[in-house]
Amino acid sequence: MSKMAASSGRALKSFVQGCCGCSSVILPSIARNVILQKPAVTVLARLVCTSSTLQRKNIAAAGPEKYTQEFIKKQIEEFNIGKRHLANMMGEDPETFTQEGIDRAIAYLFPSGLFEKRARPVMKHPDEIFPKQRAVQWGEDGRPFHFLFYTGKQSYYSLMHDTFGKFLDIQKYQDSMRAEGLFSQDTKQVNLIGSRWMIKEELEEILVQPISDHDCLRFIQLLERILALPYCSIEEEYIQRFRRALEVQSKKQKIEPLQYDENEVAFSIGEGRRKTATATATVRDNGSGNITVNGVDYLLYFPVLQDREQLMFPFQFLDRLGKHDMECKVTGGGRSAQAGAIRLATARALLSFITENEVESMRQAGLLTPDPRVKERQKPGQEGARRKFTWNKR
Amino acid sequence: VLPVRWTRYNPYYLEPEPSREVYRIPVTELTDEQKAAQELKAVRPIKATPSGLTSSVFSDPTVSKFVNMMMEDGDKVLARSIITQTFESMKRKQVEKYHKAPATEKEGIECNPYTIFHQALENCKPIIGLISIQKGGKYYQVPTPLTDSRRRFLAMKWLITECRDNKHRRTHMYEKLSQELLAAFMNEGNVIKRKHDMHKMAEANRAFAHYRWW
């Protein structure tokens, strides 16, 4: 309905010529939702002076742009057809064309030099581009469908209502077991290891409705109350819907396979960065602990003891001090940053030589995390990142 | 050691453990707490080790913190050299004492500068501290318990300020520091006196202890 009014308003505007800020609107009889008044006297065309600012729609007040179901469906059809066209263009099979193939094809056909990755051309499924929105909650007569509509957060309160219903079901089951005399405390418990409760953002995604931290906390507390009951395994699958698996961090490390050079000596290359310094390290097997940095011996390149300790750290941690040779190139940064970059590069190169348990212990020792600390930028109106200008009374 | 203010790391990251002994313990001999901690570490990302620490037996986190506190204008080379010279001079003095002492007292003399440093720091740590609380327009010094990190910080701070202020302009920093550390090891010296003064003030202001509401 609002769209029809807008279009008629635009039609009205294009109908009438505005004259320098003040547009005179002559009410025509063609407009559909304008009620014509028929006074007893002859109808005079009234000259109504309004300014263009009043006629302009308040776009911000309408809220976020609403998409209809048909519009989204049409977008999905277009996306699928476009995917098949792309597959034909790239010479691949349209049936088995994945999202990665689409990304590669778009990057090839529309090369962009923009630094901001989010500004580059993208072709994704419409579900990922258009945000999920609620369908209209009330019928033609204006009466809402859901009984909790007037709470304001209907999906959240209906979820709490359902969950508490499950709680009462479990209690009823308990009472029935007690009546039959089959009640026992040690029943099958829900397995909570390796998973965590959902966070507020994930809950918002499920409910398609913004909720507060307090709401999320209350919901988790209710679920924990259910878990405290002895017969909670009845509603296990309902509860598991709200748990997310915790990924084991050590699986995320990328371990390159060992490479072999002409003399059958195993070597591995690693890269590391710290605070504008980049380093590439080559760690060779069957060595005697020589370290060469940019063609120079490490004793000459790093006269400070602390930097040499950092170079030795990965080897010393794995007990392989005199067993490997290391050769590295490093640019940028200062003395300490270059040492940190080489440390990360050697740790990553050594991953190819060691067992999984050692990889995990290296990760827990902090050798495999790139240090995110960089120099904080200076802000306008201040002398440095934190230091303010000297305060003057006048 | 918890960070103050905001950090570049997500609060989800855990602190690293660079020493090797923790990873040498076989799985069967772990206590329940250690097992729970290991399981937590397996699923959480870990921060990078700072460049002052390594896994070698020679690196000590307390000494590293002391070096950082002594550092001025980011000159860690100078701070670290002062500390190494301090330890060297402490060792020399103790070894001299050891050789001059009769055979009965030889075992009582501690020569390892690191143990002397740790023991001296332990002797300098105050047990109770004072906090300024405003009540009825006036500020009162209220006695309060201190956390471990605060106690360690106060001990180190007192040592450093003492060595910077109350020394003759011709004596080097490392000399004065070694004298203070050896005195603190024997429970004498200005820093120990300052700690006792703090305790006496706390005892004197005992009446105001109920002004603290936490």
Tell me what the structure shows:
Chain B: InterPro entries: Ribosomal_uS7 (IPR000235), Ribosomal_uS7_dom (IPR023798), Ribosomal_uS7_dom_sf (IPR036823). The complex is a heterodimer of chains A (394) and B (214). Chain A has 394 residues and is an alpha+beta fold. Chain B is 51% helix and 7% strand. Chain B is mainly α. Chain B is built from 8 helices and 2 strands; from the N terminus they run αααααββααα. Chain B has 2 domains: 53 residues, no CATH class; 152 residues, Ribosomal Protein S7 (Orthogonal Bundle). In chain B, a hairpin with a 2-residue loop joins strand 1 and strand 2.
Q: Largest chain interface and its two residue counts?
A: A-B, 32 and 27 residues
Our measurement of the CA-to-CA distance between the termini of chain B, rounded to an integer number of angstroms, reads: 22 Å
What is the radius of gyration of chain A computed over CA atoms, rounded to a whole number of angstroms? Answer: 34 Å
- Report on the biggest sheet of chain A: 6 strands, mixed
Q: SSE order of chain A in H/E notation? A: HEEHHHHHEHHHEEEEEEHHEHH
Task: Return the average pLDDT of chain B rounded to an integer.
Answer: 91
Strand order of the largest sheet of chain A: 5-6-7-10-8-9
Amount of helix of chain B: 40-55%
Which overall shape of chain A is indicated by the principal axes computed on the Cα atoms? extended
Counted up, domains of chain B total 2
GO biological process, one term (chain B): translation
Domain Small ribosomal subunit protein uS7 (chain B): 51-206
InterPro entries (chain B): Ribosomal_uS7, Ribosomal_uS7_dom, Ribosomal_uS7_dom_sf
Subcellular location (chain B): Mitochondrion
